[in-house]
Amino acid sequence: MNLFTLLISGLLINNIILTKFLGMCPFMGVSTKLESAVGMGLAVIFVIFGASVLAWGLYHFILVPFELEFMELICFILLIAAFVQFVELFVKKFSPELYKSLGIYLPLITTNCAVLYVAMDNITQKYTLVQTMVNSIAVPAGFMMMLVIFATIRRRLNQNDIPKAFQGNPIAFICAAIMAIAFSAFAGLV
C-alpha cells in the first residue's frame, strides 16, 4: 500500500471514530469545548504515534527474535500505559491549563482502545516502520479532525433551541450518526 493511500485511508475512509467506533468516550466527553478537543486530539496524536513506533520496535526487535509474539498484547498494554504516564507528566509540567482542561480524559488515553488498536493493526497489517509512522499519524489525525468538527457542531447546537428530549447526548449521538453516514461516502476513494 502506498503512503498516500495509507494517509487518506486513516484520515477519512477508515476513520476510527466513524467506522470502527473506537475512542467514543473522549469523542463524546471532550468535544463539548473546542479548546479541549484540540488539546485532546494533539495528545492522542502524540500518544498513538509514540506508542505505535515503540510497539513496532518492541515487536520486531524483542518479541520476534525471542519468539515471544504471544506476549504482544500484554507488552503493548504495558508500553502504552507507561508512555501515557510520560505524556501526562509532560503536559502537566509544560501546559497546566491544557492539563486542567483535559481533566480525567488524559489518564483515560491509557485505556483508549484506539491507541491499542493502531499499535496492533500496524503489526497485523505487516507495515514497515515508515508505513507504521504514516498510519500512526493519519489515524489519530482523523480522530482529531472528527473531535474538532464535532466540537464545532456541539457549540452550534448549544446556541440553538433543541427540544428537551434531545438536549445533551441524544442530539450529539444523532449528529455523530449523520457524520458517520456522510463520511461513508469516502469509502469509494480507495
The low-confidence parts are none
Distance between the termini: 10 Å
Count of distinct structural domains = 1
Radius of gyration, taken over Cα atoms and rounded to an integer in Å: 17 Å
Count of strand segments: 0
Largest sheet: none
So how many helices? 9
Strand content: under 5%
Shape: globular
Q: What share of the residues lie within helices? A: over 70%
Helix and strand run: HHHHHHHHH
**Helix vs. strand class:** mainly alpha
Instruction: Look at the structure and give the mean pLDDT.
Output: 91
Give a short synopsis of this structure.
With 190 residues, the protein is mostly helical. The protein contains nine helices and no strands. The chain has one domain.
Considering the chains and any ligands shown, give keywords for the structure:
73% helix, mainly alpha, 9 helices, globular, 190 residues, single chain
Structural account:
It is built from nine helices and no strands. The chain has one domain (3-188). It is mostly helical and 190 residues long. 73% of the residues lie in helices and 0% in strands.
Record the SSE blueprint.
Layout: H1 3-13, H2 24-30, H3 34-63, H4 72-94, H5 96-102, H6 105-108, H7 113-124, H8 129-158, H9 169-183
Helix pairs in contact: 1-8, 3-4, 3-7, 3-8, 4-5, 4-7, 7-8, 8-9
